[in-house]
Amino acid sequence: MNFKRMSIITVLAVAQVSTVVPVSAQSSADIVPGQVMVQSEAANSGNVEQQQSQELLQQRALASEPVTSPSLTPDNSVPLEESSPEKSTDTDLNDPDSVQSNGDESGKIDDTQSPSESIPDDESVTEEAEKNEEDQVGTQDDQSPNTEDKSKSVNSSVNELILLMNSADMYHNGKHYKAAQPMAVKNGVSYISIRAMVERVGLKLSYNNTTKETIIMKDGNELRFKTNSSTYKVNGESRTMKGPSYQYNNTFMVPLTSITQALGIPYKVNQPEKKVILDLSGINGNDNGSGSGGGSVDPKPPINNEPGLILMMNSDKMYHNGKLYIAGQPMAVKSGVSYVAIRSLVERIGLRLTYDSKTKETVIIRGSYELRFKTDSKYYTVNGVKTSMKGAAYQTNNVFMVPLTSITQALDIPYKVDQANKRIILNLGTKPVATFTVENDEIFAGKTKVKYKTNAYSPNGLQIVNEKWEGREDIFAEPGTRTITYYVQDSSGEWSDPYSVTIKVLAPNEPPVAMFTTDKEEYKMGEKITYIDQSTDDENAIVKWDWDNNALAFFSPGPATIGLTVTDKHGATSYYEKTIIINGETFYTRDEFNQLFTEIGEKYIFNGANVPSMDLVPYTRTSEPRMLIRSNSPERVYTEGVVYRETGVGATRFMIHHLNETGKNVKMYVVATNINDTRASLTTENVGFGGPINIPTATGKASVQRYFESMQSGKDYQTITLQPGESKVILKELSAQSMKNDQVISMFADLYTDSPIRYNIVMIEENKDPIQKLPFLKLHPSDGIHNRGTYPDSTRLIESNELVGNTPARISIADKVNDPNLTGYDGITGYETSNAGNFGVVYRIKMNRVAPNTLISFNPRGGKYMGVIMVNGNIIGAPSSGAASAPNEASVLFRTGQYEQSVEILFTAAPGSSLPISLLFTPLPELKSN
After folding, report:
1. How far apart are alpha carbons 253 and 215 in whole angstroms?
2. DSSP, residue by residue, 128-156
3. What contacts 887, CB < 8 A, 6 or more positions away?
4. Which of the pair, 568 or 134, is modelled with greater confidence?
5. What is the pTM of this model?
6. Mean per-residue pLDDT for 708-735?
């Protein structure tokens, strides 16, 4: 014992004089596609490497070799913290995340989860292949130590990694290595250098400069660790660690129990000897201590002449019926998905592969099927139908790589995984293959001609020379279940296996039966008619009802014939008509009936000449301070440019309405620029967008309806931040679609900013960047016809406390007299402007006393109107369909009941429609009983 202590002290003395311990004692990691090689364990490793001296680089190279001095015992190692018994006792003896324990106990984190379960399977070759897919990714080059450590002070069994507590020393199958930093305890959690351990295990480690993450590939799974994070990720799924990872002296340190759990490595703790023993026997790719543990092996299939196509994992070798071929690139794993060189595989199968230079697609022809794959796409198509893949196809070294599971699925090739020999065996077969589909969605006995689509091919590329069918009929005479079988024969005389499809032949479709009745056979003029639909269909599949002359009431005496045509989902129709009698007695006049029974949102005809003589509803009018930016001139835009510019702060509303006359496809944008020296926030509150289409009134109606819907749902509420001088595109619904020539768009939006923001509303060609283009765009002048401007106090509050509805009364909006135009200025020229029509103004109307049995209706006074209005929180069409015309059409908005009510109305004029309008409050006629 004394001799042992003396020899180790001597070694320590010599080591202190003659050995320089490097900053990072690990070799560099291999490069994984899409990532950069890690040169140190610092998050910004590139900067660290530039600062290293030549001496440090030489030390780094030396450090990747085993240490050749006599081994150090735990008692004499140099700890990061004091390694006295008292200190060791105080650290983490009782913590489940500590490496210290009593005796030789298991150090597993979770007794309920075995190491093999610590990383979930992901999509690659198969679930079985995924569990060992680090061999598919590729492993590090062998780095065998120059000399072996002859010391017997640390006993190792085959494929064990021994970590000494409070020490940088590691023993891998008897050979001595040094980590960049000793094992350490921080806040009761044991930490180790991640690179030193991972490279001894024989796995790949890389660094992603974009996400600042250290990445390990294991079993086809991607593990990601990040400095100062208490979680790590397995294929994007977060897992919790007992403590955060950290950097120390350019070395990345992680909790020991977390990295062993992540890699599925069982371990045990030998407390008396202060060591942690990791069992690496379950880790593939390790070379049992002969080097870094990651040297790749040139595998051979155990039976070289085994039939089929054998793909060797982590290799470019393929064996086709025993003959060796070399693929354009080795099998690879990217983001947990196994990839193969498509051309090498397809040519071995015997199919034709071409390239379509117009669509940039790789094309495979198999029988009557055309398969297309495209670089950077996660989809392939079969005869134009898209199918998703688990990963995007990509190019490397001019070789096109696709997911293995996707190409085998596309080509209908069964395969199995021989994990023990690291190979995938594709069953290509030699028989011809017969398949077919039945193209009809439904087949009816005695009626439907069945459409068969065949697809037959030979895996050996032989010609299909014959076919036979069983159970095939072009038209099946009787309903029931039928099985159809198809065979083909190739030019060698070999027949395919049978391919069968089972179909259901339905009984012939019975047409629907149209039928309805009325609540009476004879009615008075103006008496409401109730129609009761009694149509039937054997499949309950009527999809369309077309009524003829089904008025709610008739106002002329005599017979009235009503007709109904119904159509089922197969297109079969049926017609029924019924005649009722209208006698000469009047029940309601036409005006009375319309007021009582016209549906909410529907329009009716009345004598609009009486409206100007109606009394005006007495009310008070106030405003809310919201700045309106109205961009509507030039309405027709002929060249790209800035159509309006303004600076706003606080509550702001946009009303945008423009038509593209450039002759090109364009987009419109709102660009917001922070003109302050401090950060600014911009909150979008409500947004409504309509278009692009070529009907201005419909576009305006859609924008108002969606604006109101946004108020109801709050779905568009969001806040962004603008740095000083920064510009961003806002209100992205406006630019989501291109505007073709003659198309129009409309938008309403409410915003709030805490600082002044400059807004530019621009129209440019669809493929141009608005922020880059903005400094070079011209400012458009107004067209002199339509309106643009900036207007304060754009929310008007109208409140009435008088009882209304007992006599006809009206509220007139945008008539310039009772509701004057807002006045403002042109944000580009500075000239004073008047907001004609008060477009963009939101009216909040509160009627506190509306009499019982009052009709509230919407009457255009300036021309055609197509919009919506909100009444008591409900969005009502004005009208629901089509347009209402001035002055003799009105849309029904609301009817009060038998008691006095308060009614709240929200209105803003729909762009493209004509103003002014009147809200009418009229007493309803008395309801009569039959």
Report:
1. 14
2. HHHTTTHHHH--PPP---SS-----SS--
3. 608, 609, 611, 859, 860, 861
4. 568
5. 0.54
6. 96
